Amino acid sequence: MPFFNAWESSDRETRLILTLAAIFFGMAVVVVFILLISRVRKNAIAKRTEALTQALQGILNSIIVNASVQESIPRSAFEFQIQQIRTIVGKSSFAKQLLISQLIRLKKNLTGTSADILRQLYLSLQLQQYSFTQLRSFHWYARARAMRELTEMQIVESAPLIEKALSSRNTILREEAFISLANLRSTKPLSFLDNYHYPVTAWMQLNAYELLQKLDPRQLPDFCQWFDHPNKTVSLFAVRMTAQFKQYSSATRLAALLKDSEADLRYAALKALTDLEVMDYLSDVKTLDKEIWSSPEYAKSYIQYIGHAQHPRQKVDALEKFLRHDDYGVRFAAAESLLNDESTRAQGEDLLRAAGEKGEALMRHLSEPLLK
Amino acid sequence: MKILICDDDEALVSMMRFKFTKENLGEVVVAPDGREAKNLLRSTEFDLVITDIHMPFHSGLELTTFIREELKRDTPIIVLSAEGLENTVLQAFEIGANDFITKPFSPSELAVRVKRILKR
């Protein structure tokens, strides 16, 4: 055998190089094979998805359009179409998930009878059972998706199961559960906050705010019930929502928070009182005079509050030091408050002139109409 | 009648196409993005354009400007927009849109608006 003879007669280095070359070649073949298999599988899934989507979409179109033309579709026609969908979907989880995604996507864009019929379809095909199964899935993304599905279809019975995800270690699951529960419990949208021990993230706050905005104001909770919550992020969220939804009745409770041991809560309460323009707590606000210096954001709220509530003479005294603050935004807020008020303008201008070039610059900024 | 629907939501477009066909409103042509819509508009004259505000490549507003300013056509335009985009809708009217409909919407309501515009 010439190959074996050559191998026998070759030196050690040549054998090593040949062995390595053979290993790399073998690995390359395996990688190419895996890539090919993966590509073929991906193409097959894409084709199946397209075929299923088209088949299901055709039936869904017919159901939606007929439902919007006639007040109610004849029961037999509806049953027939449901049977058609059942035949297409069969027992395939893939097909069920695809159908649910299609129903959800359409429901988000449609209203009235058309949206109602999509929910009816979801229930008639017992797809909520599939979503419930997914809610117990090992994969977090399947659970998050199931929460969205059950929420979009308003399956109120799913709330207790979703509530369990509020104590999940996965932040995304907690966030999804938070919004799902707020959606599902429309009469008491945030009642679950009583026993919520994890951080209320910015995502939760934004989405909760968006959802609460759509509610009838009479259904809004009294946010001050959570001011003393052991979870500080819940308290902060409640304070912010109090200001957003103009719950003036909570002003006294907000003023009490100005003396809270937590600095974040004191500042949030100051900002809320400023946003609410409740000017009856000047003496309480003034207790923060020294400590807000280090936080430009809250210093601006303080200036705004003092600017509205204070007597002109005392206002100048209180705001004068802020004209020498390191932060330009704070200096600007103080100068603006003094110069925009007829009763303090002259004194404000004198103080700014006395401050030299920095003060003159602030005056130029304030008098420039394009920069206002 | 030729209707151009510009929207990247396949399911919604499919439903609209089905609805218009069922109501015999005319031939429906679909563009999944702003670029495709511009190409179609350059080559074909449509009796109505229904466009979503948010689309890949060119927005519904850009498409409206394109029809009015570049093509100099007075093709009726219906803008589809999400809730809370009132300013965008006003902007669309300023640049020449004829009507708007807010998502989520009822297919019947859309059909009524389309019929009214096509009768003009």
Search tags:
A: 372 residues; mainly alpha; extended; B: 120 residues; alpha/beta; 22% strand
Q: How would you explain this protein's 3D organization?
A:
The complex is a heterodimer of chains A (372) and B (120). Chain A is mostly helical. Chain A has helices at 2-9, 12-69, 75-89, 93-109, 113-124, 127-135, 140-152, 159-163, 171-184, 202-213, 232-244, 251-257, 263-276, 282-286, 296-309, 312-320, 328-339, 345-354, 357-367. With 120 residues, chain B is of the alpha/beta class. In chain B, 47% of the residues lie in helices and 22% in strands. Chain B has 5 helices and 5 strands; from the N terminus they run βαβαβαβαβα. Chain B has helices at 10-22, 34-43, 60-70, 86-94, 107-119, and strands at 2-6, 27-31, 48-52, 77-82, 99-103. Chain B has a 5-stranded parallel beta sheet with strand order 2-1-3-4-5, sandwiched between helices. In chain B, α2 runs parallel beside α3. Chain B is globular and about 35 Å long. Chains A and B meet through α2, α4 and α5 of A and α1 and α5 of B.
User: For the terminal residues of chain A, how far apart are their CA atoms?
Assistant: 92 Å
Number of helices of chain A: 19
Number of helices of chain B: 5
- The residue-averaged pLDDT of chain B reads 87
> In angstroms, what is the radius of gyration of chain A?
33 Å
Main sheet summary of chain A? none
Distance between the termini of chain B: 13 Å
Specify the biggest β-sheet of chain B. Answer: 5 strands, parallel
Main interface by residue count? A-B, 22 and 16 residues
Count of extended strands of chain A: 0
Spans where pLDDT lies below 50 across 5 or more residues of chain A: none
Rounded to an integer in angstroms, the radius of gyration calculated over CA atoms of chain B is: 13 Å
Q: Strand percentage of chain B, roughly?
A: 15-25%
Morphology of chain B: globular
SSE order of chain A, one letter for each helix or strand: HHHHHHHHHHHHHHHHHHH
Structural class of chain B: alpha/beta
Mean pLDDT of chain A: 85
* SSE string of chain B: EHEHEHEHEH
Strand order of the largest sheet of chain B: 2-1-3-4-5
Helix content class of chain A? 55-70%
Poorly predicted parts of chain B: none
